[in-house]
Amino acid sequence: PQGAFELGALGPTSRLSDRAVLEPDERKRRGTPMTLLYTLQDGAAGGTARRVMAIATSLQSQGARVIVSMPMGAAAAPLMRRLGVDVREVPCLRRSRNPLYYVGWVLALPVTAAALARIIVRERVDIVYDNQLTQLQPALAARLTGRRLVWHLIGLHEPALVERLFFPFVRRLADRIVVSSYARGRRCRDLHR
Prior knowledge:
The protein is α/β, with parallel strands linked by helices and 193 residues long. Helix content is 44%, strand content 17%.
């Protein structure tokens, strides 16, 4: 998205469709549109969902095909569908403050990753777009299916301990890491040298 910065150079990126990682050579040769799977960990109809809707409609206007996955019964699903976004609801636990949530999250991780992998294969997805530091399911699905993964780190809300636990997965699995601000990029560099 405009205003995001790629980790490393930390210079402004252009539109997503202009990035080399997002235009696989095979799709270019065939003249078919790029297909992007954008994954949402929680389907609340708040700021993140609104940002995703803006990104999805922008990419669609540029000729890309965008699929958004979110938990079953998510509040944002009808809003996105009204805008013409292809929404796929997957079995996924929504975030909770209940400590038992984390046990369920670990147990549900392979189920959600498998559901995403099925979407990736069936819909011939080129790029998987992950937007949460702790959202491993899309990263695993991308790895299982051999697809490219863009991991967008947003905000500074995760405790440093959580970031230290999850960032090695980000670094290992992502083809590109994008951050939402210079502050986010500096934090990544400072914590993960």
